[in-house]
Design a protein that fits this description.
By secondary structure, this protein is α/β, with parallel strands linked by helices. The chain contains seven helices and eight strands, in the order βαβαβαβαβαβαβαβ. α5 links the parallel β5 (about 85-90) and β6 (about 110).
Amino acid sequence: MAIVANADAGLRAGRATSRATIIQLRAPELSARELEHEASRLVTSAPVPVLVSSRCDVAVATGAAGVKLPERDVGIEFARGLIRRGLVGRSVHSLEAARLAQDEGADFVIYGPVWESASHPGVAPVGVASLQQVAAALRIPVLAIGGVNEARVDEVHRAGASGYAAIGMFA
């Protein structure tokens, strides 16, 4: 599983290769109306399912495949009440948060940053050993994020992760 967190790069990756399996629309700078417009565009044009970051209402309204919630966002139970048949994922930064997300009913977690990442400057990476620990402890898919590039994909899988989420890799 490969989630691309940049919509335009995701469209390119989804069309050019089979690597991008989900596109995540993450655009906190957009108004709700602009986000709804962009999500609608992606849902109808993307070759793979689309998740909306943090906005259950927009995901439901546009027919997106689900939502990816930041660690400090609304609860999984709340999101599941709105998104009954779609995916609900959670970004996490610790084993405890990953277990909580699983216990609350998340379909997957995105864990990291595993390596230093330009999208999260100044955030200390958790490392591959920590990714391996989280992947071994959970029953749901764990995706690595943060500094994932072509050279690190095999390492992500060797650590037991089901896949990865990337921003810059497909840009």
